Design the sequence.
C-alpha cells in the first residue's frame, strides 16, 4: 500500500524541475501578453439597498466573489468590449461609476499604484504556529466547539497509501468540489502541477465513520506544513455542516506535530476582513501575510466616496498591500457622524492578526481622531477619494 503512495511521489519527481520551472515562468509572465482586458459594468444593490455601479477591467474570481458579497441583490452585467491593459491600469471611470476595479499584471500594479490607486492582492496568506493552534484547540471555546462538532459527525483522517489515490482525489473530490463551491468563479489547478507537489508531501484522506469523503494535499518544506488543495464528495452545505474544513485543520495539526514542523500554512484566503474562511482561520491562530508568487494585482479606485462606496467597504472591508504592510480599509455602517469610539468597536470585530493598520471611513463625516485596538493603529477618515485616503 505504501509502495503505491511512493509511486505517486516518484512520478512527481520524474516530472522534473525543468517542467516545474517552465510552468512557473508561464504563470508569472503570462499576464504581460494580455494587451487588452474585458470591460464590464456591474450594477446592483448593496446590503442596505443602495444602488451601486462598479466598472471592472479583467476577469477575476476575487472580484466576482467580492461583488457577490457587496451587491447581494439585483446584479446586472453589461459588457463594454475591451480596454487596453495599460489604460485600465492607469485608471478608468466615468459618470455614474462608484468604483473601478482593474485586474492587471503585478508589475504594473506595483508601479501604477503609486499614483494613488489602491493595490488589492488577489489572495492573502494565512499561517499559524503549530503550538498556537494546539493552544487554541485546548483553550478557545469556539475552536473546541467546532472540533467537537467535527468529531460528532464522525470525521477523522488517515494517510492515503493506495495506488491511484491522487487520481481519485483530483477527479472525484478536488475538481468537482471547487466547481460546485465557486461556480463560474472556480479556479482549478492543473493535475500535473498538483502531482508535482507530492514529491515533498502526500495526501491525507478525510473519512466519515470509515468512508472516504474527502482529502487534502499537503507539502512539508523547511519547517512548514502546507495545506495545498482540498476536496470532498460532500456538497458544500453538507461539508460545512459536518465540519469538513475543521477536520482538514485537525489532520494538518496532527501531521505537523508528528513531523516536528513549527508552522502550518493554510494557503490563500480572500482579501477582505468579513470573509468567513478568513475569520475561521483567525480563530485558530492564523496570521495574515503576503502571498508569494502572485502574478496579478487588483487596482481599486473611486473618485468620490459615495454612500454606495461606503456601503460596499462596510460589507467587505478590503485588505490592501501598502509599503507599511497589510492595511485594512472599511467603513462604518449608518448615516450619522462616526466617532473614534465607534471606530474602535468595529475595529475589534474586524481585527485579524497580521494587519499593520486599519483605516475606517465615516460616510457622513467623522470626529477627527485615531485609536488603537491592541497594538493595531486605527484611523478614522472622512469620505475621501481613494487617491487622498493615504495622502
Sequence:
Amino acid at each position: 500500500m505504501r509502495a503505491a503512495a511512493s509511486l505517486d511521489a516518484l512520478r512527481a519527481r520524474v516530472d522534473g524541475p525543468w517542467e516545474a520551472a517552465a510552468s512557473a515562468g508561464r504563470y508569472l509572465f503570462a499576464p504581460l501578453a494580455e494587451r487588452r482586458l474585458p470591460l464590464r459594468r456591474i450594477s446592483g444593490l448593496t446590503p442596505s439597498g443602495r444602488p451601486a455601479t462598479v466598472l471592472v477591467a479583467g476577469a477575476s474570481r476575487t472580484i466576482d466573489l467580492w461583488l457577490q458579497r457587496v451587491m447581494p441583490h439585483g446584479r446586472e452585467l453589461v459588457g463594454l468590449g475591451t480596454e487596453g491593459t495599460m489604460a485600465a491600469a492607469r485608471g478608468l471611470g466615468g459618470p455614474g461609476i462608484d468604483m473601478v476595479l482593474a485586474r492587471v499584471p503585478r508589475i504594473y500594479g506595483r508601479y501604477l499604484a503609486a499614483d494613488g490607486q489602491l493595490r488589492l492582492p488577489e489572495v492573502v496568506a494565512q499561517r499559524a504556529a503549530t503550538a498556537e493552534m494546539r493552544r487554541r484547540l485546548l483553550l478557545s471555546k469556539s475552536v473546541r466547539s467546532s472540533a467537537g462538532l467535527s468529531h460528532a459527525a464522525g470525521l477523522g483522517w488517515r494517510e492515503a497509501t493506495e495506488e491511484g489515490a491522487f487520481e481519485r482525489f483530483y477527479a472525484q473530490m478536488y475538481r468537482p468540489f471547487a466547481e460546485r463551491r465557486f461556480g463560474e468563479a472556480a479556479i482549478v489547478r492543473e493535475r500535473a502541477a498538483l502531482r508535482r507537489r507530492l514529491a515533498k508531501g502526500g495526501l491525507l484522506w478525510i473519512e466519515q465513520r470509515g468512508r472516504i469523503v474527502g482529502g487534502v494535499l499537503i507539502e512539508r518544506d523547511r519547517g512548514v506544513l502546507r495545506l495545498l488543495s482540498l476536496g470532498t464528495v460532500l456538497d458544500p452545505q453538507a461539508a460545512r455542516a459536518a465540519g469538513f474544513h475543521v477536520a482538514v485543520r485537525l489532520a494538518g495539526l496532527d501531521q505537523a506535530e508528528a513531523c516536528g514542523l513549527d508552522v502550518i500554512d493554510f494557503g490563500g484566503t480572500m482579501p477582505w476582513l468579513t470573509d468567513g474562511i478568513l475569520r475561521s482561520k483567525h480563530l485558530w491562530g492564523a496570521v495574515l501575510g503576503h502571498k508569494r508568487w502572485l502574478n496579478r494585482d487588483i487596482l481599486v479606485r473611486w473618485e468620490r466616496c459615495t454612500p454606495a462606496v461606503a456601503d460596499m467597504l462596510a460589507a467587505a472591508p478590503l485588505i490592501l498591500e501598502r509599503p507599511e504592510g497589510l492595511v485594512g480599509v472599511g467603513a462604518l455602517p449608518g448615516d450619522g457622524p462616526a466617532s473614534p469610539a465607534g471606530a474602535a468597536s468595529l475595529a475589534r470585530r474586524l481585527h485579524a492578526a497580521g494587519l499593520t493598520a486599519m483605516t475606517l471611513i465615516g460616510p457622513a463625516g467623522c470626529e477627527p481622531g485615531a485609536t488603537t485596538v491592541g497594538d493595531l493603529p486605527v484611523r478614522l477618515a472622512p469620505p475621501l477619494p481613494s487617491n487622498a485616503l493615504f495622502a
